[in-house]
Specification:
With about 300 residues, the protein is of the alpha/beta class. The chain has one domain (about 75-295): Rossmann fold, CATH 3.40.50. Helices cover about 40% and strands about 15% of the residues. The protein contains 11 helices and 11 strands. The chain has helices at about 5-25, 30-40, 65-75, 90-95, 110-135, 160-170, 185-195, 205-215, 225-230, 245-255, 280-290; strands at about 80, 100-105, 140-145, 175-180, 200-205, 235-240, 245, 260, 270, 275, 295. The strands form 3 sheets. A 7-stranded mixed β-sheet has the order 1-4-3-2-5-6-11, sandwiched between helices. Strand 2 (about 100-105), helix 5 and strand 3 (about 140-145) form a beta-alpha-beta unit. Helix 3 (about 65-75) crosses helix 6. The chain is globular, with a radius of gyration of 20 Å. The two termini are about 35 Å apart.
């Protein structure tokens, strides 16, 4: 509930209940029509819905994953959880009081080989966090993170079938997925911190880290500094995995990220080999020296898009 008072929250719940009854009789054509009926006179700013459970013969042919994805795309949910095993549950049940590793990316390749590379990278990050916590601590939870927002302001929003294609490839490989409404890492971190105060670690390729530095953040008064402050405010680090020099160059060209230089070792570039001219370079070096950016080792066969 997003309204500031109990009275307004009760009003919103009442409207939602009436909409639900009407929709059950007249709007059960598609997930989109169902959600549109629920939203009548209750805008997304008043209620957040991050899980729907449908039961009964009327829904036997429905794709539950599509319904959850539409919750995000329509703005009802900040994130939904799609598990590789078992039934879907609200994000709180997957995240509650757990140490978490988040692997954000586009994950455009749907083939098995790329999915397995992604799984190894996530497993490496989970092992790294387990070392931090100690072997006696409960194992961290790991999630692949996709976004329903375009990667750049110039691209259209991804369609639900495309999102589900990428989700399915990760689920088939055995990975659990969080689908977020917004693409910024600090938004992902804020959602996770609703449900856990344990350590949160991102695992990301260098190109995604560079994009984090190059984004404009026009919605924030403090721009990049405010975005980084929000991201690293509470026990958060980024595990930075290396990329091949060729792939890094291609990725940075695709996002028009100029001014970055690097050296390489056996064709691979690590976070410690990546440089940027001042003043931005000073900030990047500070995050490395302060252990907010943590270089990690990954399989030398790294060729996945992240």
């Amino acid at each position: 509930m997003r309204d500031p008072t109990n009275v307004l929250q009760q009003e919103a719940i009442g409207i939602l209940g009436v909409n639900l009854i009407y929709t059950a009789f007249y709007e059960l054509h598609t997930p989109e029509s169902l959600l549109a009926g629920l939203a009548q006179d209750v805008v997304q700013e008043r209620i957040e819905i991050d899980y729907i459970d449908l039961r009964g013969p009327a829904f036997e042919g429905w794709d539950r994953r599509s319904l959850l994805a539409n919750l995000v795309c329509a703005g009802f949910a900040e994130a939904v959880f799609l598990p590789s095993k078992g039934s879907a549950v609200p994000p709180t049940e997957a995240l509650y009081k757990k140490a978490v590793v988040l692997a954000p990316g586009y994950f455009g390749h749907g083939d098995t080989s790329h999915s397995q590379v992604h799984m190894r990278l996530l497993a490496s990050a989970i092992q790294e966090l387990q070392k931090e916590l100690g072997e006696s601590a409960e194992p961290p939870a790991g999630f692949f993170c996709l976004t329903a927002s375009p990667l750049t302001p110039y691209e259209p929003k991804p369609e639900v079938p495309d999102l589900l294609r990428r989700v399915d490839a990760l689920l088939a490989a055995g990975g659990d997925v969080l689908l977020f409404r917004q693409r910024e890492l600090y938004h992902m971190k804020s959602l996770v911190n609703r449900y856990t105060q344990a350590p949160v670690r991102f695992v990301a390729g260098l190109s995604l880290i560079v994009r984090t530095f190059e984004d404009i953040y026009g919605n924030l008064e403090g721009r990049l500094l405010e975005a980084l402050a929000r991201l690293f405010a509470q026990n958060v680090r980024i595990y930075a995995y290396p990329m091949t020099a060729t792939e890094l160059s291609e990725k940075l060209n695709s996002i028009s990220a100029a001014g970055w230089e690097w050296s390489e070792t056996n064709g691979l570039v690590s976070a410690t080999q990546l440089r940027r001219a001042p003043p931005l370079g000073h900030l990047f070096a500070y995050l490395l020296a302060s252990n907010f950016l943590v270089p990690i080792q990954v399989p030398a066969t790294l060729k996945a898009d992240a």
